[in-house]
Design a protein that fits this description.
By secondary structure, this protein is α+β, with helices and mostly antiparallel strands. The protein is 44% helix and 13% strand. The chain has a two-stranded antiparallel sheet.
């Protein structure tokens, strides 16, 4: 999962050259994962997934700079990367439904 991989990179940046172990490292999942994701697994399951991904990627031997670079490269693949979202409300007089519509407008370098 993309969220697990990005979290593994963020934790390695935080840890610098320390080893990532469940007993030694305590971290708040809410700081690294969206609330909507947290319900998918228990905190212990999340940590296990993150630790396994961390090991698979060999992050223990990577520098902060390398992890930041890899994080950005992976984040740039996301379709909403670089997009700014604006909350909008359409006036009831301006739409066919006759009641306010709440929506988001998204703007990026492609329009």
């Amino acid at each position: 999962d993309e969220a697990v991989e990005l979290t593994a990179y963020m934790l390695q940046v935080k840890l610098a050259k320390k080893k990532l172990t469940g007993a030694a490292i305590k971290f708040d999942l809410k700081r690294y994962l969206p609330n909507s994701y947290l319900k998918r697994h228990t905190p212990e399951e999340w940590k296990k997934l993150i630790f396994v991904k961390h090991a698979q990627l060999g992050l223990e031997n990577k520098t902060k700079h390398e992890c930041k670079k890899e994080y950005i490269i992976n984040a740039m693949k996301h379709p909403t990367f670089g997009t700014t979202f604006f909350a909008i409300e359409v006036d009831p007089k301006m739409n066919a439904f006759g009641f306010p519509i709440k929506a988001f407008a998204a703007v990026n370098n492609e329009g």
